[in-house]
């Protein structure tokens, strides 16, 4: 009996020690087999029986981990209620110092309202954020944000599953304008949209300058990345500090304009890909 008790105590101590030194939490919310049932939640790969169970499990992790530096949020449902409830736990914890925030979501039009508060709370320590919605960035960024890499997309602004609309274009431009004035900095920007991200646009170019962007990856199904010059609008430098430009998608990008628009560009790659089918074709 004494041997078994000692063995159990050693297991508990080993588990607590492992948790104390772990600095990453992963949360996944997905549809149940019966979609009428509550979504299925997994934390660190372990299935939770309910949202209440998930919140209790997070309380246990947060109370036993020394410092949380990486948070992975995977939302595979069209409703963010459960995810927002779990994000709130991180807002109340005193040992969250996020350096990396990895986000993935399946449905357009989904927004995690408490992400903005989480980002603002960790503004001084964050260095990497992936697949953040434009509206979430505008609400959460401030002058303390200084990222090495940022992944942005505008799918959080989509309504009624319309990937192209005047309303979406207007909201996207407004978010980009607001982003330029927040004082946030990010060296590399990876931007994903169905269409509409044009480096020749004054608002876009101004935002990239203000945010000190030196490297850009654009993933876009269609549209123009650069506007062809006209007699009324001659070619002129857009981003003097841009060093790397990578394009993925079915958009058009006149290569002959690159040198004049980006005089200090040292790397350029265009992979033509139909984002719907996955068919790729390198572009010289």
Quick recap:
By secondary structure, the chain is of the alpha/beta class.
Molecular structure report:
The structure is a single chain. Helix content is 31%, strand content 27%. With 284 residues, the chain is α/β, with parallel strands linked by helices. Strands 3-2-1-4-5-6-7-8-9-10-11-12 form a twelve-stranded mixed beta sheet. Helix 5 runs parallel beside helix 6 and helix 6 runs parallel beside helix 7 (202-210). The chain is globular and about 85 Å long.
Descriptive terms for the model:
single chain; 284 residues; alpha/beta; twelve-stranded mixed beta sheet; 8 helices; 12 strands; 31% helix
Question: What topology does this entry show?
Answer:
Elements (H helix, E strand, L loop, with lengths): L1 H20 L2 E7 L9 E4 L2 E2 L3 H14 L3 E8 L5 H12 L3 E10 L9 H7 L6 E6 H7 L5 E8 L12 H15 L4 E9 L8 H9 L4 E6 L23 E6 L8 H4 L5 E7 L6 E4 L1
Parallel strand pairs: 1-4, 4-5, 5-6, 6-7, 7-8, 8-9, 9-10, 10-11
Antiparallel strand pairs: 1-2, 2-3, 11-12
